[in-house]
Amino acid sequence: MSEKNSAQNPVNLCLPDGSVRTFDGPVTGTTLAGDIGPGLLKAALCIKVNGEAWDLSRPIEEDSDVAIVTSRDKEDALDILRHDCAHIMAEAVQELFPGTQVTIGPNIEDGFFYDFARDKPFTEDDLEVIEKRMHEIVARDEEIIREVWDRDDAIAYFKKIGEIYKAEIIADLPEGEPITVYRQGEWLDLCRGPHLPSTGKLGSAFKLMKVAGAYWRGDSKNEMLTRIYGTCWTDKKELKAYLHRLEEAEKRDHRKLGREMDLFHLQEEAQGSVFWHPQGYTVWLQLEKYIRTRLRGAGYDEIKTPQLLDSKLWEKSGHWSKFRENMFVVPDEVPSTDEDAPVLSGDAKLMALKPMNCPAHVQVFRQGIKSYRDLPIRFAEFGCCHRNEAHGALHGLMRVRQMTQDDGHVFCREDQVTEESVAFCDLLASVYEDLGFPEFQVKLATRPDVRAGTDEIWDKAEAALEAALNARGIAFEYAPGEGAFYGPKLEFHLSDAIGRTWQCGTLQSDFVLPERLDASYIAEDGSRQRPVMLHRAILGTLERFIGIMIEHFAGRMPLWLAPTQVVITPITSEADDYAKAVFEKLEAAGLRAELDLRNESIKYKVRDHSHKKVPAILVVGGREAENNTVSIRRLGSNNQSVVDLSEAIDALVTEGTMPDGTASA
RNA sequence: GCCGCCGUAGCUCAGUGGUAGAGCGCACCCUUGGUAAGGGUGAGGCCGGGAGUUCAAUUCUCCCCGGCGGCACCA
Length: 665
Fold this sequence. Notes:
Layout: E1 11-14, E2 20-23, H1 29-36, H2 38-43, E3 46-49, E4 52-54, E5 64-69, H3 74-96, E6 101-102, E7 107-108, E8 111-117, H4 124-140, E9 144-149, H5 151-160, H6 164-172, E10 179-184, E11 187-190, E12 206-215, E13 224-232, H7 236-251, H8 254-260, E14 264-265, E15 275-276, H9 278-297, E16 301-302, E17 308-310, H10 311-317, H11 319-322, E18 329-331, E19 350-353, H12 358-366, E20 377-386, E21 402-412, H13 417-434, E22 441-445, H14 455-471, E23 477-479, E24 489-495, E25 501-510, H15 513-516, E26 521-522, E27 528-529, E28 532-541, H16 542-552, E29 566-570, H17 576-588, E30 593-595, H18 602-611, E31 616-620, H19 622-627, E32 629-634, E33 640-644, H20 645-655
Parallel strand pairs: 1-5, 16-20, 22-23, 29-30, 29-31
Antiparallel strand pairs: 1-2, 3-4, 3-5, 6-8, 7-8, 8-13, 9-10, 10-11, 12-13, 14-15, 17-19, 18-19, 20-21, 21-28, 22-24, 24-25, 25-28, 26-27, 31-32, 32-33
Helix pairs in contact: 3-4, 5-6, 8-16, 13-14
The structure holds one RNA strand of 75 nucleotides.
């Protein structure tokens, strides 16, 4: 691209409808829009030039495919609006709080944030003031002007005005990258752009959402900045819809539903460990039973290994050096009962609660001599692990310190890795489908900087996982450097009610641990070989997965998982005997039924059980007793239907049957 | 762990420098009501913990602990 293009050279711009407009020389998006029509000029936000978003004020000097972006082009419009909104927020902040430095302010899903450096962090109260000033800046309709600066001048300038973070960002920009600065009114900021032609175009469909701390460059060793999150839309209606969506999502919060449905609780004496109540543990047991069945079907043998293991084993496995800060360490000694003496001497042998099951599984593998004919060996364990998670990380069922994994380890030959990985991906997809999650995201986490094993081994391990994904046509993205120290991993992510994603399933190929813990098998030629170890989990942990399911279903579990599947209740006490008889039949049919003989109105009882998310309510009165029928009302419906009792039971039993994995075949 | 906000009855939340209130829930009584709240009465609180200021602290200050929202970490 030449800046020196002569003005005489005509420029041909090809519009999305295929028509071409010719101009005598360089032309801006504004001119083009005005040329097409005043309505478009008014609506124009920016212009796409050969697929790249440009400012309307930037001259286009060469023949190009162009498209004027208006609020109708949702994605492009939101991109530019949100980014402008971040700039306007930064301008407001610096007007109101002089001395505050700007750092970075990218778009994120549904909005944007901007990180500021300031001695005193912002509070929620500041947001109102900042937001008010932002509306004023929009009303001022300041022209936004793009300038290309010399790199050294830019660094010097930002240093001079005390913006040391900006100066640092510029210094880190790759050589040759043009340094662009945008002015709006008195204010300016380093920015790649593009931006709206003026602040007035932003409109008023934005809102500042929350403040938070965030580390500079995302590194906890760096200073903490203060971050302001905002949301921004093309119009007020969209903003309102978004806020409504957030409210609806909050209603699904598993912590709230967990309390309302009496599923579990947490308390400070056991931070991060769950007290499962009868209703919640029923869900747990059902889920566990289902997974157990699926694992058996996939050739796994279930085992159970110790909680407390000698630190010597963790030293060998590498956990002691790489994972110890997350482990609960327990001294192996009789505590002193002397009131004046310290409880522990401090020099006892150390044990640790297992944070992972893998080293224990290797111990089981190591018993006896294994032949290549034995492989693959697939061990499964509902392994209860403890991890000393940071206090700030704990979050309901989603981040806990005591977790039960649907863990498993496949010991196989190198030539079996891809095959076993494919089988696992199939199993996982089928399980997710059965559980109501046909969609999930996959990441391939590759070698981290600090790792064990040679590059050749890592090449092999990463290629094996990728081959499995490709074999099944599973879309994925790379997560460079995020693999475990012993091997790369596939991460399977699900989303919760408010859009946060959580890693559930995982598949990790490991060439290191078998070596460290000396696992071997006898190969066909009689030589001793190392097996490859595949670490895998489908649900990840039962705790997190149940949390996600609660939110996914908004508490309305499928019948086979629902803690109470059906409630039977009489209209008046005259029907108590019939209700009891129905209840007994339901129980005999294997349904999790509850009998509600409370002296309350039927309205009250229906409401109560609906709140508790009971999937089916059977109401009986004189008419039903006489005809041997029930009036059945399903959760979420305001209607009810009267059916024969036996028919109702059959239907519930059928629907309440655990999936067997054939549904998604 | 870091930054900010918050902590009053089982739950949701009012409130005050002079040791507390509502609704729901719970208990009892009345009510026997055909599908999302029938009525009455009553019991429930070391106002998160500790220190300080004060004649007096649930209220003001400080320190802990915990919760929430992020960050970092992560299944």
